[in-house]
Amino acid sequence: MKAMVLAAGKGTRLFPLTGVLPKPMAPVADKPVIQHIFELLSRTGVDETHANVHYLADVVLDHYGEETRVGGMDVRFHREQQLMGTAGGVKNVAEAFEETFVVVMGDALTDVDVREVVDFHKGKKAVATIALTPVEDTTEYGVAALDREKSIVSFQEKPGPEEAISNLANTGIYVLEPEALSYVPEGAFFDFAKGLFPRLLEAGERVAGYNVRGSYWSDIGTLSAYKKAQRDVLAGLVKVEVDGELWGRNLWIGEKARIHPSAYGRIEGKAFIGTGAEVGPDASLSEGATVGRHCRVGHGASVRGSVLLPGATVGAGAYLEDCVIGPGYEVGSGARLLGEALVREAA
């Protein structure tokens, strides 16, 4: 089975983090979210995946190269010279898909069983199937209404709760037949949600909806959602592979991480310390703190409910609560930060 992972967009709602990283490269538990997607697809039997890149494409390609391998799955990257939209990006590599295939957004965290969605799709003999998940707030998502046969009859984009036709949100996980791409114009910007799926319904094609209730899914579309995703992984609410060794029930420690003996007793609740990171004397971590690879937490510093991206430094005596600190950023000694999101300015 083959798949397409969409990784070309800007992820503007996650700014300022996405000012220096494309959203699919934002780390969750010290691993790019797109890597979690690759591992999910590999585990579910996909043997070849294609991914498109555009915004800050070099960040992705410098990390992976033009081709890589994840588990038993080959991954090939395609640079878009101009943004083509979600469906347009797939159309660009349509020749790769000769039979039923999967499309997944590369910037969401999920453990949806893709094989279940594929089996449902084939059972319904649909030209396209959308994985749907119930949400409490429909104002942030496109939603779909189903008939008794689980066919989608209508779509609605980010409705208020009083006008929503359903609470079933589009997860950005699709199963498609190759002929669905014949409805996508050549060389034009074209999306799935606003373009292809309505066009399929107008043409009388069957578009099915599969409720993935019980699976984890987050579009990590805001800084708040991004921080929550980190905590959810540490709490075991998401079936993903976390790199490192679990000490006791609460602490993940990466390879060659160094923790001063006086800091061990000051780690409260869940925490993650990445490869090569250092936690100094009397430093404290709490409330799901995530310390990325090669980060430094100085003497007596306190990191609460915050995410430190690779290479970030927290100076001695600093206090961070509910923050996101970008790659390589240096928090000065004695600083006190509440709810901040800080990244290094471009050189």
UniProtKB/TrEMBL annotation:
<dbReference type="Pfam" id="PF00483">
    <property type="entry name" value="NTP_transferase"/>
</dbReference>
<dbReference type="InterPro" id="IPR050486">
    <property type="entry name" value="Mannose-1P_guanyltransferase"/>
</dbReference>
<keyword id="KW-0808">Transferase</keyword>
<dbReference type="InterPro" id="IPR005835">
    <property type="entry name" value="NTP_transferase_dom"/>
</dbReference>
<feature type="domain" description="Nucleotidyl transferase">
    <location>
        <begin position="2"/>
        <end position="234"/>
    </location>
</feature>
<dbReference type="InterPro" id="IPR029044">
    <property type="entry name" value="Nucleotide-diphossugar_trans"/>
</dbReference>
<dbReference type="Pfam" id="PF25087">
    <property type="entry name" value="GMPPB_C"/>
</dbReference>
<dbReference type="InterPro" id="IPR056729">
    <property type="entry name" value="GMPPB_C"/>
</dbReference>
<feature type="domain" description="Mannose-1-phosphate guanyltransferase C-terminal">
    <location>
        <begin position="267"/>
        <end position="342"/>
    </location>
</feature>
<keyword id="KW-0548">Nucleotidyltransferase</keyword>
<dbReference type="GO" id="GO:0016779">
    <property type="term" value="F:nucleotidyltransferase activity"/>
</dbReference>
<protein>
    <submittedName>
        <fullName>Mannose-1-phosphate guanylyltransferase</fullName>
    </submittedName>
</protein>
<comment type="similarity">
    <text>Belongs to the transferase hexapeptide repeat family.</text>
</comment>
